[in-house]
What we know:
Elements: E1 14-20, H1 58-61, E2 75-76, E3 93-96, E4 101-102, H2 121-124, H3 156-159, E5 185-188, H4 216-219, E6 231-233, H5 254-257, E7 327-329, H6 349-356, H7 369-372, E8 388-394, E9 396-400, E10 407-417, H8 476-489, E11 500-501, E12 506-509, E13 517-523, E14 537-539, E15 545-547, E16 555-566, H9 569-575, H10 582-599, E17 601-603, E18 606-616, E19 620-633, E20 636-649, E21 652-653, H11 655-662, H12 675-685, E22 689-692, E23 700-701, E24 704-709, E25 714-717, E26 720-723, H13 724-732, E27 742-745, E28 756-758, E29 762-764, H14 775-785, H15 789-803, H16 809-813, E30 817-818, E31 823-829, E32 835-836, E33 840-842, E34 865-869, H17 875-891, E35 902-905, H18 914-927, E36 935-940, H19 947-959, E37 963-967, H20 976-989, E38 996-997, E39 1009-1017, E40 1028-1035, E41 1043-1050, H21 1059-1074, E42 1080-1086, H22 1093-1111, E43 1119-1125, E44 1132-1134, E45 1150-1152, E46 1162-1166, E47 1179-1186, H23 1192-1202, H24 1217-1229, E48 1233-1235, E49 1253-1255
Parallel strand pairs: 1-6, 34-35, 34-36, 36-37, 39-42, 42-43
Antiparallel strand pairs: 2-4, 3-5, 7-33, 8-31, 8-44, 9-20, 9-30, 10-12, 10-16, 11-12, 13-16, 14-15, 17-18, 18-19, 19-20, 21-29, 22-23, 22-29, 24-27, 25-26, 27-28, 31-45, 32-33, 32-38, 39-40, 40-41, 43-47, 45-46, 46-47, 48-49
Helix pairs in contact: 11-12, 17-20, 18-19, 21-22
Domain PAZ: 653-766
InterPro entries: ArgoL1, ArgoL2, Argonaute_Mid_dom, Argonaute_N, PAZ_dom, PAZ_dom_sf, Piwi, Piwi_ago-like
Domain Piwi: 935-1234
Amino acid sequence: MSYHGGGGYGGYDQRGRGYDDPNRPSSSGGGYGDQRGSYDQRGGYDQRGGYDQRRGYDQHGQHGHNQRGGYDQRGYDQRGGYDSRASEYGRSSSGYDDYNRGGGQGYGSGSSGYEGNRGDYSSGGYDDRGRGGSHGGYGAAGYDDRGGYGGSSSHGGYGGSSGYDSRGGYDQNRAGSSYSSGSGGYDDRSRGYSGAGYDDRSRGGYGCRDDRGYGGSASVGGQGDRGYGGRDDRAGDRGYGGGGRDDRGYGGSGHDRGHGTGTGGNHGRDDRGYGRQGEHGGDDRRGGDRGYGGGGDRGHGGDRDRGGFGGRGRGGGRGGGGSRGQEGPGAGVISGTGYEQIGNPIADPRIQEEWSGRAGVREVRADDADLQQEVQICRRPGITQSGKTTQLNVNYFGVSLDSAPSEIFKYHVTVERSPDLQADCKYGPSAPDQKDESMGDEPKQEGKDVKDVEMTDASADAPPKREARPERPLPRSLVRNVINAALRQYESEFGGLRVVHDGMAALYSPALLPWHAKDFTDVNPDGPSAAPVAPPQSASGDGAQRRGFRGPRTFVVKMKLVETISTSSLKDHYSNSDVNVMPVLQALDVVARHLGAQRLIAVGRNFFTMKKTHTLKGGKELCWGYHQALRLADNKLLMNVDQAATVFYSPGPLMQLAVAALRVRGPEDVRDLTERDMKSLARALRKIEVVPTHRKDRKRAIFGVSAQPANMTMVNIKGENMSVAAYFSGKYNMQLRYPNLPLVNVGSKRPGKENWLPIEVCEVAPGQRCANINDLDTAEIIRQTSQPPRNRQENIIEQIRQAGFENDPFLAAFGIKVDQRLQPAEARVMDAPDVQYQNVSERPYGGQWSLNGKKFVEGVPVRNWGVIVAANVSERVAQNFVSKLTDLGDQRGLPFEDKRPVLIHQDQYRGAQVEELMKMCHQELERRSLGPPQFLLVILPAKNSPVYGDVKRMSDTVLGLPSQCIASQNLPRANPQFCANVCLKINMKLNGKNAILRDPLPLISSEPTIIIGADVEHPRSGMGGRPSIAAVVASMDRYSAQYAARVAAQKASSDIQQLPNMLRELFLAYYENTKRKPERVVYYRDGVSEGQMFDILQTEMRALRKAFKMISEDYNPPVTFVVVNKRHHLRAFTVNPRDADRKGNVMPGTVIDTSIVNPHRFDFFLYGHSGIQGTTVPGHYTVLHDENKMSAEDIQRLTYHLGYTFSRCTRSVSFVTPVYYAHLAAARARFYLNEGSDGASTVGSYISNTSNFEFAEVHSNVLNRMFYT
């Protein structure tokens, strides 16, 4: 996966990943699932706290979340992330997207927050600005419990709010940008981590000293390890605000902070923090600018020295309310689905039978006429004019074809081995004459039955016959080299024309060549100088004369004219979408990429150079490059260029990679490898090309590792059994230093054809991209690739210059010119929805809001629950945490009626596995007379504990009881923010509702409508034969507050193979909840490339129709089918800095649907969240089919506002919520795979792609709950 640009994703976001620890470190990464991500943008409850303190918490104690500022969205911005795309995590990417992750670069708390009187920036916190008090640290009055900026003159650290580390800001001692990367996420899908891939959402800062991850103190480099979000459900994902150790992030106590002295400190302890009303404390310099401090230019704030409402807020120049967002009335307690007052429940007994499922599954014939209808892709219904307009520059560059020829000629190319030399060489042997090279020795030529090494017993009477097998396909890199060699050797045959090729089977010429078909023989990719001298002949065992020396292989290249392509089809396509424009686009794309492919290392659509690299741990290095692709827009052709980065294996000893895979310091530390260790090693080394060091040889790919070490792996050498270690000692006089390590197989996957080499005699060949990225790699990649928007823009322009398009002779030959300027685009900014809690509502600003002082709209009473301590934590510490959690739950509207849960400690049952402890706890709960068991709280030994998967598999598939995991290190310093995060997730799992949107959603609010999100998570490269995981989620109410999920394992495929059955079950669950059948369907589908859109539309619309008929013959609701793509490379930059958020990124709610979008399809780019570090990445939405006849404004508003219904955080997410939930469900389901023993060859080789897996089904008790959050 190439990481486009920066950012990355840190920490699992929980969301995608598994852990639910709210504090999970940002670096836990990966996921993507696919890793796709998952990363939670969410970040903290508002990390804001403290956020920008430039803005003043508005005097009323309105905690200002900075609006622009502060950590403001935690972190990592997308920028980078991994784009998964090319090899597309992170799913390239993808992995995962940009959900902002963690906080900013050492900016003190907020962005420049108040400097106090300009004095020393309080205790030295990071930069002057952000940190509190006027010189005095937070100052005495500093955090008073309510807030304010604290003391009189000093801002006191923003009322303790700050969420800074508890120590005040970023931990003052830490300097530097602790946040590190940005958005990231694997985007994986190409897979490179593309720019924004993983999701930039909320992850706390990487750079922190400890793992803190999201936000929170940690995110700032502080010492706490708080991290918001954590891997999946590890305690809330996003911490509110962060704050260091104190309780709130919004205002923690000064003492914890490290900065201040003060008095006010402790007051912040209440869970809200923002201090007293009157103490606005603002620096008198601040006001004007951005409304942070008030008056002056924007916002409501009073005089510039007040600090007041400030903010870009609603009244201010930027469109938003006070620093914290406008507040309004609450919704009260919201029970039910919201459809009780809309329409009537189904009364017809026949229909009730169908929709209750009692009627069974209706059989639907495969040839049913309704399933055979082809679905047409819809056209854009119009352009929306509502919203504030803003001007952007995007990383697209104009392409001129004014001088292009009227026709381009395409030739089909095939490359074959020359038939005259049946010889082995560095390009691989041809079929029947292939040598048996056991142990890496060259076979003797005297007789066909004589070999140095026999892997099987040889018969003295009858030498074994070599069995014929098909030729191995030529490597793609070799094919490209052979075609280039043919063009050089036969240059005169091409009439002086500059032709280009794609390195596989297509060659293009700007004019007709002198011939229509031609074969070019004896093509030598090594050049004429490599031609061998004819060697003397020697006799074989049967008397036949054979070559005693095998020279370099030569090839035959065949070319044939197959198509004449008119370049005028581009212009015709602008006015008529039926004109097929793909042939000319493919030809022009090959022309534009040809020179780069000759000079650089091509990975998918990305080009990389090895000139400048950054060394990673474990034998890997990070390399930079750029992404390039042609895009068809409205009456113009554009070139998309973006910065990219990816990981290569460092040339050097293979031992570095083996040691890293086994997680030991050195080879001498390897002891008694387990089956899991062997599988990890096999996956890490699979397909890596190595060169033996004990003798001269070509590079060879690794196919597996031995089941036994070198001193125990036996081979038959000329009838004598010996170990491989003994063989090397006798043959090469080499005593292996590490005979206790496994061997690598560089021969063949076929049993009996292995070629074993000790790891210590293998060197990694240069120029190999690494597909196996671990969490530590991810964290470092994010740190290295994160870039703010301005830097990203400058680097993209520099990449265009370095690509040298203006001097490219191949572009000139085809009459193509590329503009060097960014393409302008006009966009619109939509208003954010009001988020409503039981007692109050808030209009978010910058995609975030505060949970402080708010109650869930429907909290589920907790009457019977249990705690399992599977870590070295005392019972007293566990009980203290339980007390904090229950108190905070009561305040947030999640009433814990049971204050004394069943507690099972591992110390009571020495040697018991966590699954056994969970069963015992479940049994105890069933024996109580407090009602059915509701959930289990499991305290794990560490944030990345492998026990997490065991817990989820047991709770979700065996016990049928929701579980919430928490890392043990978070217990002693658990503050209200942390506990509130945990409560958010618990309430969702118990079928509660955290918040709803005040204003109606298009379609959903007016009649029963089901919103569906679907995704297929594919295993990362190197994960062997693991199946793909398909996940489909569907809304269960009018508020988009509760979603049920269905998951399934399947063979690798882009479509969802069990989709009809999954959809039927979800429709029936919707009826069970609402007593109404869905009258309309909105289907969001992720993971579909542009080339797959038509096929996926046909396949999955057929599945939808089949699901309808499986319930009732006459049920056929209208469907809107939308594809979501996070793995693209569009990056936008504001023309006017005043239109950007505090980090210079495009504001959330911004929509681009003109100028640079497809000229015919109904697509748009939507910024759903605000990034903090790095460059944010919008979601790309394509409406393929719309039977609901929605306007462009309605579908865009629905998509944007659904991003505010993501229940695990107080932030909008970067892409639409149902798809986000589908990612989470797919990532969770990967834990349900039970891997059997790997298939082994006759000598016990671990070959990772032959594994078998069993998939556990989700328990019926939790099937329709949000168990995956």
